[in-house]
């Protein structure tokens, strides 16, 4: 994790400029995250919030949300850019148990290999109270494979394999979404519930 967050730290200004606003996001993702966030009754954690724009988006929808990220530079920048929102240093692996009703992990688990992904998913599951909801976004492909992401190595996941990883830690998968377009890498999203 340290290597990943140091790699993000070195390019955080560039990342915030290029990808740190809703302008760089897909309208379908805004719809999904908004619909998901508005039905959650209780605290939401935006895990791996990066620049903080999704935390700001959910805050503006009336959600009780805080963004956490292991990259100091992102947390410093997010606090300055979105001073009305709450941000703290943290990681997917160190979430307090039973502390949330919603966890958004939007492209923040893309650098985890399968073993680390399992640990992070277990932590997200334990951090949710019963009935809590998990929304994860990631890159899809027909086969699991690492690739050279602009910041540091990331992984493609077949949607059904990611579903299996999520079910393996005890979640019930409620929704899956997949999108292929010509301008970006294939995208997947899963909504799951802690029963
Ligand atoms: C591709 S960026 C996504 C940022 C943001 N969620 C977005 O949608 O733009 C990946 C983020 O995951 C964070 N990250 C890396 N390792 C993490 C971990 N173990 N737990 C939580 N976040 C992590 C990075 O610091 C970075 O902010």
Count of DSSP-assigned helices: 7
CATH C-level label:
Alpha Beta
Supply the number of structural domains: 1
Low-confidence stretches: none
Give the SSE order as H and E letters: HHHEHEHEEHEEEHEE
Q: Going by CATH, what is the homologous superfamily?
A: Vaccinia Virus protein VP39
Q: How would you sum up the major sheet? A: 7 strands, mixed
Strand content: 25-35%
Mean pLDDT: 96
Q: The CATH topology, please?
A: Rossmann fold
- As a whole number of angstroms, the C-alpha radius of gyration is 15 Å
The best one-word shape is globular
- Strand order within the widest beta sheet: 3-2-1-4-5-9-8
> Helix/strand-derived class?
alpha/beta
Number of strands: 9
Taking the alpha carbons of the first and last residues, their distance comes to 29 Å
